[in-house]
Amino acid sequence: MEVDTGASMSIVSEETFKAIWPNKEWHKTDIVLRTYTGAKVEILGETEVTVEYQRQKCKLRLIVIRGEGASLLGRDWLQKIRLDWNSFYVNNVTREHLSELLKAHSELFKEGLGLLKGTTAKIYVDSQVNPKFYKPRSVPYAMRNKVEAELDRLQSEGIITPIQFADWAAPMVPILKADKSSIRICGDYKVTVNKASNWINIQS
């Protein structure tokens, strides 16, 4: 089985199940599983199997899915079995295979900024709220060159665009990154547009 910490349940394909347990049956289950893309997994049922690992032995639930494919050891089993992580290894990826992947998906790996096309983002602001325009805050002298360099980079990549006039303006907040040599430029929007924006709670 392949250890997959992203899988909530341990699963086995119908093909593998019949090969290992030709006389064993599964029973109906109400469990619903989805892939990382949101697609629903076709579940045939569940069964209980005896799992032995080193000196450990226990009975655990196993989900049977239609078709063929890799068997996954998910988080439910990981909570019951103490694995020797030092004995695991990562499957080797050949340079030829890597080159094929990079070539097939060259658009994803090319240099520069990636853009989301075909979609327009809009911030909804309460029309009853008066715009707030804050003057720029002083930038520490030791950070000025880094801030100017980062602003130039953002402009050259089309992330920011100079304008002449604006109703809203938030103070800039430069943050020194962990490498101590580059800057992340943020905006203090809590004093301006945050209170006037209609933010959607994604969890709702």
From TrEMBL:
Keywords, sorted A to Z: Hydrolase
Domain Peptidase A2: 1-77
GO biological process, one term: proteolysis
Entry annotated with the keyword Hydrolase: yes
Gene3D superfamilies in the cross-refs: Acid Proteases, HIV Type 1 Reverse Transcriptase, subunit A, domain 1
Coiled coil: none
Pfam families: RVP
Domain of life: Eukaryota
GO MF annotation: an example: aspartic-type endopeptidase activity
UniProt cross-references to PROSITE patterns, sorted A to Z: ASP_PROT_RETROV
InterPro entries, A to Z: DNA/RNA_pol_sf, Peptidase_A2_cat, Peptidase_aspartic_dom_sf, Retropepsins, Retrovirus_Pol_polyprotein
Name of the protein in its database record: Peptidase A2 domain-containing protein
Organism, as annotated: Stichopus japonicus (Sea cucumber)
Organism classification: Eukaryota, Metazoa, Echinodermata, Eleutherozoa, Echinozoa
